[in-house]
Amino acid sequence: MISVKSVAGMVAVALAVAVAPAAATTYTVTYLGFGCANAINSTGQVVGEFPYAQSAHAFLYSNGTMTDLGTLAGGDGSIATGINDSGQVVGSSSIGGYDHAFLYSNGTMTDLNTLTGGSYSKAYGINNSGQVVGMTHPSAGGYHAFLYSNGTMTDLNILMGGSGSKAYAINESGQVVGYFTPPAVAGEHAFLYSNGTTTDLGTMQGGYGSQANSINDSGQVVGFSYIPGGEHGGQHAFLYSNGTMTDLGTLPDMEYSIATGINDSGQVVGYAYPNNGPSHAFLYSNGTMTDLDTLMGRYNSRAYGINDDGQIVGADNMGAFLLTPIPEPATLSLLALGGAALLRRKRASEGKR
Question: What does pTM read for this prediction?
Answer without folding.
Answer: 0.86
